[in-house]
Design a protein that fits this description.
The complex is a heterodimer of chains A (410) and B (183).
Chain A lengths: L15 H55 L19 E4 L2 E4 L18 E6 L5 E6 L6 E7 L10 H12 L11 E4 L5 E6 L4 E2 L12 E7 L5 E3 L16 E4 L2 E11 L2 E7 L18 E5 L1 E10 L4 E2 L8 H4 L26 E11 L34 E9 L8
Antiparallel strand pairs in A: 1-2, 1-10, 3-12, 4-5, 4-11, 5-9, 6-7, 6-11, 7-9, 8-9, 12-13, 13-14, 15-16, 15-17, 17-18
Chain B lengths: L13 H58 L7 H4 L10 E3 L3 E2 L2 E2 L25 E8 L7 E9 L21 E7 L2
The chains are: A alpha+beta (410), B alpha+beta (183).
């Protein structure tokens, strides 16, 4: 017998039964592993869908809280004067009264229908009250002087002092303008001004009887003619050497809205120096900056000093139905100088309750149960009329935010 | 004499293969169980984050109520609805998630309704996965009272039919949020 034909027992391969048993065992292992991996994938995707809206809502709320808590009237003379600035619901743009805060927007060009749009004002970092003097003539261009000499030092350092002043009021040397700032008189009345030419400094006048260290050209109402909302002609500011006016600069106006772009709803912000939300050009306009995608709803309820929370989900708490004459648009009103504020005017707002509804980036996959599966209750405690997109996980975050400027000492 | 080369070509036996596969399977199960554990850890972390935010929400509302007490005492919601009496006094402890049947015992923390249109709207009795206790100590040397909002996952004792958080050792997790208020 030739050697090549010899079949040693040790050379024998697997029998068919052996291979079949081995493959069966392998198949069982693979099936179990596959099922586990598939379930892990489902868990991971579900977890991501659950986490996304939570993270989005929290980021949105953190961002909004910064501006809402820091919103300020910047009126050190009388923070309760009936001319609030922290919440800007209306303002005058030239001869036109514009609405800057909306409850349940009706026009899709302004924001997503049913969401709220709101505007607040806060001081630019570093701003402080500065004593001023000048000719106060209502709404005309003037030259005013400011007693600001902190940077003069012992050597009358005009350069340093001017640099500090420009920083305090937010003056932009390149643009040649500052943001709007407030000038208020001892009675608490105020109006917006804007620096429209480079200020000059003369530290040697700091010790004069009527010090005019900083001299600046200003435009009442700013270049665009922005003034507090008034029912009648302004009475102007009443200042004198004995009862000086002060300036607080500059004002940073910020408007937030929710708008869907390309099928994705997003939180947007408008923050431009010297300008406020203008429904005539921000519809939708190109000035808003996108902040966060997948924010579907933004709702604001107004918290008053008497414990009332308006524009909540209760019909008895809707401003538009509580007093349709005073609040036809469903937002707090602002009054003219010297006019007594109504109970639910903006000046009496002490805080806001904010609800943000965010959604997952992707619709819920069919293998996770499809639309609505596992989605938590999202109905805000405010008067939302938003129809939330079906098929997504949603998450609502509600926060009670007190305007610190309005609850001093608390 | 040249050794027979085929003597070194002996293959593995079925037993050897099965033993090897069994070991591999145990290893795979161990690795995959780590995935599962990671998932549960993530769930636990997400739950703790949610509890932290919930504590902050409650603290913000108590701050508002305390402001109301200081500025317009008559406007403060009744303690029967909030579980808290103002002024806040040291030693006060209230479990604001306590249930009365399937509803919140202190309805102020739930959604606004016809009876309480100014309710806080931050707790949903149907999705109550946590138990919240508010406690007050102080005032301290600076004259401020210390408010502690403790949030712990729901248990069969605190809410027998309520939903549960998932995650390792979730029953023993607790989030404390501390803030100070003027009395």
């Amino acid at each position: 017998m030739s050697r090549s034909c010899h079949r040693d027992r040790s050379d024998a391969g697997f029998t068919l039964i052996e291979v079949t048993v081995a493959m069966t065992v392998l198949l069982i292992v693979l099936v179990l592993s596959g099922a586990l991996l598939f379930s892990m994938r489902s868990f991971a995707q579900k977890q991501q869908s659950l986490a996304e809206p939570r993270q989005t809502a929290r980021r949105a709320m953190n961002y909004l809280s910064y501006y809402l808590r820091g919103a300020s009237d910047m009126n050190m003379a009388d923070s309760t004067a009936p001319m609030p600035n922290a919440l800007v619901t209306y303002y005058n743009l030239g001869a036109t009264t514009n609405q800057a805060t909306y409850n349940n927007v009706a026009s899709a060009s302004l924001a997503d229908v049913g969401t709220d749009l709101f505007t607040v004002a806060k001081p630019v970092p570093g701003s402080m009250p500065i004593k001023v003097a000048g000719i106060w003539d209502g709404l005309t261009t003037s030259t005013i002087s400011a007693l600001y000499s902190q940077g003069c030092g012992d050597s009358n350092d005009n350069t340093t002092n001017l640099a500090q002043f420009n920083q305090a009021v937010g003056y932009d040397a390149t643009a040649g303008t500052s943001p709007l700032f407030l000038v208020y008189d001892p009675g608490g009345f105020w109006q917006y001004y804007q620096i429209t030419a480079a200020p000059t400094c003369d530290c040697s006048k700091a010790s004069a009887a009527s010090p005019t260290v900083i001299t600046m050209t200003v435009t009442a109402g700013g270049i665009l003619g922005i003034n507090p909302a008034r029912d009648s002609s302004p009475v102007g500011l009443t200042c004198s050497d004995g009862n000086p006016c002060y300036m607080t600069g500059g004002v940073q106006f910020v408007t937030f809205r929710v708008r869907t772009v390309g099928g994705t709803p997003r939180l947007e912000q408008l923050a431009l120096p010297g300008r406020l939300f203008d429904p005539a050009q921000d519809n939708p306009g190109t000035s808003f900056t996108p902040l966060l995608d997948n924010v579907e709803d933004l709702q604001i309820a107004y918290i008053y000093g008497d414990g009332t929370i308006c524009n909540s989900s209760q019909p008895t708490r809707l401003l538009s139905t509580m007093d349709s004459a005073n609040y036809p648009n469903g937002v707090p009103n602002m009054r003219a100088e010297g006019v007594t504020a109504a109970t639910y005017d903006a000046v009496n707002v002490r805080g806001v309750r904010v609800s943000v509804v965010a959604r997952s980036a992707q619709p819920i996959a069919a293998f996770l149960g499809g639309a609505g599966k596992g989605a938590p209750a999202i109905t805000p405690p405010e008067d939302s009329t938003v129809a939330y997109a079906p098929g997504y996980y949603h998450y609502r975050l509600t926060s009670t935010i007190m305007i610190q400027n309005r609850i001093l000492g608390n | 004499m040249t050794p027979n080369p085929r003597s070194k070509e002996k293959g593995s036996s079925l037993i050897e293969i099965l033993v090897a596969m069994a070991i591999l399977m145990f290893l795979m199960v161990g690795v995959l169980s780590m995935f599962s554990m990671a998932y549960l850890m993530n769930l636990g972390a997400a739950a703790r984050t949610e509890m932290t935010y919930k504590a902050q929400q409650v603290a913000d509302v108590v701050r508002y109520l305390n402001f109301l007490h200081r500025s317009a005492p008559a406007s403060v919601p009744a303690s029967i609805n909030t579980g808290l009496a103002f002024p806040l006094t040291s030693g006060t402890t209230a479990t604001i998630t306590a249930l009365s049947g399937s509803a919140l015992q202190f309805a102020y923390w739930g959604a606004p309704n016809g009876t309480l249109p100014d309710a806080a709207g931050i707790l949903n009795p149907n999705d109550l996965r946590y138990n919240i206790t508010v406690s007050v100590t102080g005032p301290n040397a600076a004259g401020l009272v210390t408010l502690t909002v403790a949030v712990v996952p729901n248990t069969s004792t605190s809410n027998a039919t309520g939903k549960r958080y998932l995650g390792p050792n979730m029953r023993w997790k607790e989030v404390d949020y501390v803030t100070q208020l003027p009395p």
